Amino acid sequence: MTDEPPEDPGAVPEEVPDIPAKELPEEKMGLGFYAAFGFVLLLVLIIVVGNYSVIKPDAGTELTRTNWTLQYLKDKTGITIPVQTGSRVTAQFGKEGRVSGYSGCNWYASTYTTKDRSITTTPESVTDMLCRGPGVMDQESAYLADLSAVASWRTGGSDLYLADASGRTVLVFNPE
After folding, report:
1. Which DSSP helix (H) or strand (E) runs through 143?
2. Cα 56 from chain centroid?
3. Which pTM does this prediction carry?
């Protein structure tokens, strides 16, 4: 036995031996890591592409965000002309698939459907008032014919453009 007191297990020795650090091999990403990373990227891509219709703006939202006032229409000769001064033609696209408004002399209603930038309208009703004033009835007839012939739509700035099946713009609206 020695006369020395027992060592405290928590005590720090006075001299710490210098232990050389072992050289660790350089870690490299293996094939498994890159395969898993690629798989995760593929899943993210599938989710984004699969939900694209949810991400892109809804046609209904753009059409129904405001009431529209007609600025230009294609007349019966095929020329795009401004709406007659003092005449008001409107369109309100409802979320339930109806478009209605004032056609310059009469009130009208149609149904519509959209898919992406395509649109089809089906006339439903028009009041039967006699319109006074030169050209008002012709303008109304041209407007209702153009509205029935629309096949696509787009917005530019704040305006709404409706085009026929050939892609030619037939109606141009401004927001109210």
Report:
1. helix 136-149
2. 4
3. 0.66
How confident is the model over 123-169, as pLDDT tens digits?
999 999 988 888 899 999 999 999 999 999 999 989 999 999 999 99
CB of 90 closer than 8 Å to CB of 67: yes
Q: How far apart are CA 37 and CA 32, in angstroms?
A: 9
> Residue 93 in contact with residue 109, Cβ under 8 Å?
no
Amino acid at 64: T
Whether pLDDT at 53 is above 60: no
Among the listed residues 86, 83, 123, the one whose alpha carbon sits nearest the alpha carbon of residue 107: 123
Q: Tokens in use for 56?
A: 């892109």
Q: What residue ranges define each of the domains in the chain, with the CATH number in brackets?
A: 59-175 (2.40.128.270)
Is residue 71 within 8 Å of residue 160, measured between CB atoms?
A: no
